[in-house]
UniProtKB/TrEMBL annotation:
Annotated organism of origin: Musa acuminata subsp. malaccensis (Wild banana)
Family: Belongs to the multicopper oxidase family.
EC number per UniProt: 1.10.3.2
Name this polypeptide is given: Laccase
Function (record text): Lignin degradation and detoxification of lignin-derived products.
Length: 535
């Protein structure tokens, strides 16, 4: 194993898209930011120096950070922010993991422009468990706002309403020719006829589940969230914010130019966001004057496409990469996801939208939760997050529009070291149903079951897949449905869990687990680094 060093300078750069220039926070002046390359088992040392006027933290999304929450990054959860003029060095190993992950700012909405790919190659000499591609590349799907993204977030808070949607989707930072001023802002991938390419697709959008397709070309899904899956072919894929999907694509069509396209998946009756970002799959030698062919994307509200796509995801579960699904459960958790309305004296109409788990809207403290836990500081958080909602009700029945208030709190759930946890996330019709991509820090989990309507604890577990369920770090809870995940709590620390739609995170759709230390010398949280930013 090697040690790889990276320098991340957080700087404000002038960036132009859609004929519109604005100052944006970037890493090293690049949008998307630099890719981190490593091999399984390597040690990464990333020095982040903050030259911008914003507080900053960086999260390595999907890196397990074994015993090492100090390098995880969510602001006020595992660290206080790196202030303007300050710096912090993230030290971490990528052990027992290989594939595509990504990094992003984990404070306010700054990840809109502060993000990039993490590519972890298998150990030297270890092949992929699928045909070796001729070449590989990252495709980062994102969003662009003409307005300052922090102003968009604040405007949402002030009005007490959902903030504006973005002005464009992007592929590797570029919206493509269906948007104004595409000349410099179209990404093209040149391919050779007959060769196979590995595309590492990342959804870095703030608030949109996305469909992705390539005109004329079928894709073979081989990996999700840096875990290998049983390969299957598909003409389109769906990817939630936070997720990654690796596909093989063979340049087996008539030499030409083909659009790769992405647009939102949204199966609720709010105004449909139809904007489509495109990039070009360019066969070598074909003149760039040839007009590219457009792919057929699923309809924006195609719930059944999403369900059947998700249904095809299975862990590879080979002798070398077994799916170690917990078969027994020590701790059963049932969390309802709700939207709500709370009083807000500083908001223009006196109320604001909130979101909650088990009716609790999470409030971040002024110090970092991990420090408070490690040093046993009193009064920062309570360890009484409830294992189930205060009352049971018909979660997904007719919309519940009364008594939408939630309780505010910094309440965490204590989990015994090495216990096995089953968590059912249940969407509700509090205000309205909606799909929510949930991300757990510090772990991968197995998605053992999912369904529409109310979870039935008597019947649904009988249908769980305990053989080869998909293993991931972010899972979409379907609109008006539920998802069950299992994991073994073998990583001590304070681990954030939240909806990866940034708008919902801002509204409080988040909580954290305190996983206790074990008894052994290798079962405790490591000591904090000396340069951990002060609170
Ligand atoms: Cu990708 Cu808590 O984040």
């Amino acid at each position: 194993a090697a040690t790889k060093k990276y320098q991340f300078d957080v700087v404000v750069s002038n960036v132009s898209r859609l004929c519109h220039a604005k100052p944006v926070v970037t890493v090293n002046g690049r949008l998307p930011g630099p890719t981190i390359y490593a091999r399984e088992g390597d040690r990464l040392i990333v020095n982040v120096t903050n030259y911008a006027q914003y507080n900053m933290t960086i999260h390595w999304h999907g890196v397990k950070q074994l015993r090492n929450g100090w390098a995880d990054g969510p602001a006020y959860v595992t660290q206080c922010p790196i202030r303007s003029g300050g710096s912090y060095t993230y030290h971490f190993n990528v052990t027992g993991q290989r594939g595509t992950l990504w990094w992003h700012a984990h404070i306010l909405w700054l990840r809109a422009t502060v993000h990039g790919a993490i590519v972890i190659m298998p150990e030297q000499g270890v092949p992929y468990p699928f045909p070796q591609p001729y070449q590989e590349t990252e495709l980062i799907l994102g969003e662009w706002w003409n307005a300052d993204v922090e102003k968009v977030e604040q405007q949402g808070n002030l009005l007490g309403l959902p903030p504006n949607t973005s002005d464009a989707h992007t592929i590797n930072g570029k919206p493509g020719p269906l948007f104004p001023c595409p000349e410099k802002h179209t990404y093209a991938l040149e391919v050779e006829s007959g060769k196979t390419y590995l595309l590492r697709i990342i959804n870095a959008a703030l608030n949109d589940d996305l469909f992705f397709a390539i005109a004329g070309h079928s894709m073979t899904v081989v990996e999700i969230d840096a875990t290998y899956c049983k390969p299957f072919n598909t003409s389109a894929l769906v990817i939630a914010p936070g997720q990654t999907t690796n596909v093989l694509v063979r340049a087996d069509q008539a030499p030409g130019r083909y659009f790769m396209a992405t647009r939102s998946f949204m199966d609720i009756p709010i105004p449909v966001d139809n904007k489509t970002a495109t990039a070009i799959l360019q066969y070598r030698g074909v003149p760039t004057t040839v007009v590219p062919v457009m792919p057929q994307l699923p309809a924006p509200n195609d719930t059944s496409f999403v369900a059947s796509f998700s249904d095809q995801l299975r862990s590879l579960n080979s002798p070398r990469y077994p799916a170690s699904v917990p078969l027994d459960v020590d701790r059963r958790l049932f969390y309802t996801i709700g939207l709500g309305v709370n009083p807000c004296p500083t908001c223009l109409n006196g109320t604001r939208l909130t979101a909650s788990l088990n009716n609790i809207t999470f409030v971040l403290p002024q110090v970092a939760l991990l420090q408070a836990h490690y040093y046993d500081m009193k009064g920062v958080f309570r360890l009484d997050f409830p294992d189930k909602p205060p009352t049971s009700f018909n979660y997904t029945g007719t919309p519940l529009t009364a008594n939408l208030g939630t309780s505010l709190g910094t309440r965490l759930s204590r989990i015994a070291f090495n216990s096995t946890v089953e968590l059912v996330l249940q969407d509700t019709n509090l205000l309205m149903v909606e799909s929510h991509p949930f991300h757990l820090h510090g772990y991968n989990f197995f998605v053992v079951g999912t369904g529409i309507g109310n979870f039935d604890p008597a019947k649904d577990p009988e249908t769980f897949n305990l053989i080869d369920p998909p293993e991931r770090n972010t899972v979409g809870v379907p609109t008006g449905g539920w998802t069950a995940i299992r994991f073994r709590a073998d990583n001590p620390g304070v681990w954030f869990m939240h909806c990866h739609l940034e708008v919902h995170t801002s509204w409080g759709l988040k909580m954290a687990f305190v996983v206790e230390n074990g008894d052994g010398p290798e079962e405790s949280i490591l000591p904090p680094p000396m340069d951990l930013p002060p609170c």
